């Protein structure tokens, strides 16, 4: 028994020597990276610092050395995995990944199992995105800023609010990707609303929650007009462990309104049916929103609609005038039953603030005559208030500095006192 400890110490020297070599190499690489590394969002330096704090106090003579060392390696591995996209091409990151793999093989560490925590009460849960920051603070001791969340919404004819808070009105007939990153894909299908018009609205939404560690298998959700299910296409209502509810669907109003909560990626999705069409709102962490390949750059929520698909004029919504051609080549709907004044009154019943949601409501009523678009605009604003992280940015107002104005220009109406050169315009207060 007396010789057990020396023999054990000798047996762990190779992996510890490898560990020291790995950390020394990473330290040199971090120093050599200079400002180039400091200005990226790659978190490999924090991962390495945490790993050092987990292992610096370990004693090779203790019986639980292997257990604690493997826990620290797994925590290191999880941290590097979460940074895999933002650290793509980072030499320090790839060196760390290779070193972790070698050390786990040497110590016979399993990939699955508990991970280290400097606070026994603050264990790392890879399936709880909102808790990651708090755990990092306990592990590293440094104050970590909370994650930044972004909002995107689509409603009406259709109106798009991007993750950058840009507001656009688009045609985008057919199937288009709203989101397509390494964690989530959202695709919508839009169909014409009025015969002969390029204006469309959403009648189908498909969402793919991609498999993530042990938190959830891939789950697909699909909603179409008059079929807004409270389950994924496989019939389940949750992903992963049913007790932890890493991903689950909540039916708020049967057949009309559901919510999806994905705690492992800190993401919430609202889907509603109002009239014959669907609306969508989503809140997602910025670091996950931006985790996509170059080939995935066609994402309406990230980059907006292509210029050829835009109906609005740099954010200004053209109002149809009965009997005249719309700027995008369709006749105004003569049977809509709404004038500018009656549409304004109708929208003002639900929306007291004359922001872009109010103007979108007026635009949709004049274009389609469908009063359900009033409820869609109102619900879209409610979703903003529920999901958008910045209250001061809830309302988006017209770009003109003065009060909103409607101009009649060559048969078109615009929401601003916009007076192009060589065009006589007649404007009146809205």
UniProtKB/TrEMBL annotation:
Keywords: Autocatalytic cleavage, Cell membrane, Disulfide bond, Glycoprotein, GPI-anchor, Lipoprotein, Membrane, Signal
Listed GO CC annotations: plasma membrane; side of membrane
Highest taxon listed in the record's lineage: Eukaryota
Record carries keyword Lipoprotein: yes
InterPro entries, alphabetized: RGM, RGM_C, RGM_N
Residues covered by the Repulsive guidance molecule C-terminal domain: 149-389
Family: Belongs to the repulsive guidance molecule (RGM) family.
Protein name as catalogued: Repulsive guidance molecule BMP co-receptor b
Source organism per UniProt: Corvus moneduloides
């Amino acid at each position: 028994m007396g010789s057990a400890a020396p023999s054990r110490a000798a047996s762990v020297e190779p992996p510890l020597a490898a560990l020291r070599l790995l950390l020394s190499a990473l330290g040199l690489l971090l120093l050599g990276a200079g400002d180039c590394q400091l200005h990226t969002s790659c978190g490999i330096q924090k991962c390495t610092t945490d790993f050092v704090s987990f292992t610096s106090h370990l004693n090779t003579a203790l019986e639980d050395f292997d257990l604690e060392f493997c826990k620290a390696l797994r925590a290191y591995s999880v941290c590097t995995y979460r940074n895999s996209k933002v650290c793509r091409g980072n030499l320090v990151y790839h060196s760390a990944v290779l070193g972790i793999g070698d050390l786990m093989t040497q110590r016979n560490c399993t990939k699955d199992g508990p991970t280290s925590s400097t606070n026994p009460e603050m264990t790392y849960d890879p399936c709880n995105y909102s808790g990651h920051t708090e755990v990092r603070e306990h592990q590293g001791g440094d104050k970590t800023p909370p994650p930044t969340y972004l909002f995107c919404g689509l409603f009406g004819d259709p109106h798009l609010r991007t993750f950058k808070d840009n507001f656009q009105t688009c045609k985008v007939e057919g199937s288009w990707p709203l989101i397509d990153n390494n964690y989530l894909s959202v695709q919508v299908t839009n169909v014409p609303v009025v015969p002969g018009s390029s204006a469309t609205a959403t009648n189908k939404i498909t969402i793919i929650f991609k498999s993530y560690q042990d938190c959830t298998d891939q789950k697909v959700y699909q909603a179409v007009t008059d079929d807004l299910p409270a389950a994924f296409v496989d019939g389940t209502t949750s992903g992963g462990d049913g007790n932890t509810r890493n991903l689950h669907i909540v039916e708020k109003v049967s057949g009309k309104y559901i919510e999806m909560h994905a705690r492992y990626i800190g993401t919430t999705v609202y889907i509603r049916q109002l009239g014959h069409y669907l609306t969508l709102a989503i809140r997602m962490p910025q670091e996950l929103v931006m985790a996509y390949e170059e080939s995935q750059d066609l994402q309406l929520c990230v980059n907006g609609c292509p210029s050829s698909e835009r109906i609005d004029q740099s954010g200004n919504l053209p109002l149809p005038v009965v009997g005249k051609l719309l700027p995008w080549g369709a006749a105004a709907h003569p049977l809509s039953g709404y004038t500018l004044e009656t549409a304004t009154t109708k929208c003002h019943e639900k929306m007291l603030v004359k922001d872009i949601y109010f103007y979108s409501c007026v635009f949709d009523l004049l274009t389609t005559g469908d009063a359900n678009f009033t409820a869609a605009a109102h619900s879209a604003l409610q979703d903003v208030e529920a999901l958008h992280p910045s209250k001061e940015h809830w309302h988006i107002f017209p770009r003109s500095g003065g009060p909103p104005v409607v101009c009649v220009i060559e048969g078109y109406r615009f929401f601003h006192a916009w007076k192009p050169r060589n065009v006589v315009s007649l404007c009146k207060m809205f």
